[in-house]
Amino acid sequence: MKEVLVFRTSINSKREVNVLKPGLNRLIAKDGYWNFDLEDCDNILRVETPMVTATSITGLLNNHGFFCEELH
């Protein structure tokens, strides 16, 4: 069963999304889905996956210099 994870981020452009795209695709793989809502004031990242943890997602974004916080 897929888990839905939602994050507030500091991503605010398609260029920044493209920087993260390879890493997110590797992390999420074929069984999941991710997208950014850059129209939202919190620049939401939504991830649907059966295997990835919130810590993995926040770590990836933090390693690229972006803020990322899971919303509960």
TrEMBL record:
Domain of life: Bacteria
Protein name according to UniProt: Uncharacterized protein
Species this chain originates from: Arenibacter algicola
